[in-house]
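Task: fold both queries, return tokens.
Query 1:
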Amino acid sequence: MKVYLRYVLLVVGGASALCGSQSSPADPLPPPVLQSLATQRIPPTALSIVVRDIGSGETLLAVNPAAARSPASTIKVLTTYAALDELGPNYVWQTRALATGPVVDGHVRGDLVLRGGGDPFMTTERWERFARELRFRGITHIDGDVVVDDTLFEAQTADPDDFDGKGYKTYNVLPDALLVNLQTVEFRLVPDKKGIAVVMDPAPDNLRVINKIHALHTACRSGAHALQFTEESQTQITIEGPLSVHCEGVSLRRAVLRGPEFAYGTFVTNFRDSGGTIAGHLRIGATPPSAHLLVSYESLTLAEIIRLINKFSNNPMARSLLLTLAAERGGAPGTLTKGAAAMADWMTRREITCPDLVLDNGSGLSRVAQISAECMTQVLTSAWKSRYFPEFAASLPLGGEDGTLKHRFSDTRGAARVRMKTGHLKDVAALAGWVTTASGRTLAVTVFVNHPGAEYGDGDKVIDAVVHWALER
């Protein structure tokens, strides 16, 4: 195994015949796929396909199967299945509150430590419940500081803007061992007697919003499109621009602050709203060995978490999952290097051969992640044979029914017969999963299209032609 940082490259066994950009000879493409390629002006060299009968192992179609391609979010199939197989469907994360001093008459005579356990889905509602649990235990006042301990994962030094300049988008949020509400606030813009009020949900105590919205008394035409958000500092945002008072139900979601600051700010709001008071401020650091436990709050199960990740292609949650696997198998802090090692070991034990796999952060939000269609199909085959197949299969979007496939494959041939993970990135369209054919067979299907503009629909049309061909086998 070879591991390179800042990015992670996994090399797991494998014969040289599958290496690098070398590709096995392509099978003749089915006429519908050829027609779609011609219509979309995508060359066959930009396409990788493997269609394999799960029961018999017969490969029905293989086009450039060994070529290393960008998989976009289909790499989540690998990340989530490996975590499920290694940790089990009932694995849970624990978020803890600890005190560094005694509790006397409801007062914590010391600091309160919020220790992140890596929960990928600590929502606003569950974080509020966590704060109330302290109040239910009679805690009314914290004499010292609130210490955020997020040392379970390595410190994130990247800039959320690095990927595409849109660090305020939730999909760009960096993983954190104490990640609350995906670090995202919904800004609700509500007309009132003074103009336009800004209501935050959740409302971090340490985030100040300067409202410079110009209220218009004209018809609502452009909604909030003319508004601008400016981060004056880490803890202050200015919202300005015109908005009609007749625009109803306008809201904007944005990632704000950093992970520890967001967790602290929302905790303070929740604790104070429930009647508690805090004398100190935020500190970030490890839990002192002498701290004693006050509250331990359990996450959703891993089976529930991977469903959220795959159905809705959640990047921060997928990245947290890889770091969780890293910490469980390599010890804290969870790092990309340890994640690579854990994944390499797991793939060796499962006899999955991926010579050119570049995992990176495990979410697919990457310019360097690569995998071959053959490798992805091996992953799908292994998952089908797994003891946890029902839990994993239920995590994938169902054609015409839910998730990222809710409005795709809804015709009579594909509805509820397609369970596949989607992937889109600049110049990438991808799909990987299973289909149930007209004759009742289960086929593993992997399709990658890496071509300029593929993400805007042209790539999906080619992929859909492959899937519909497979459905008729």
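Query 1 returned. Query 2:
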Amino acid sequence: MDAVKVIHDREGQTLTVWFGKPSSEVSSADNEHGIVVMKDQTGAVIGIEVLGYTGHPTSIALEALGGQTVSQ
């Protein structure tokens, strides 16, 4: 698994999590829940952004395909 990059913008109230290279993004779309999904040219999800995030991301756990948990 590639490195995961987490960006918390308190002023902009967003939490962005990149699973792939941000420079690979070719499209993004938001849903009715305030989540933006970023995809690469193959359609693979390489990141998500939570809009209106006001929490404090002190501990984040991610579950990779195959059931492995990665904590940051």
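Both queries returned. Flag for query 2: The chain has one domain: 5-71.
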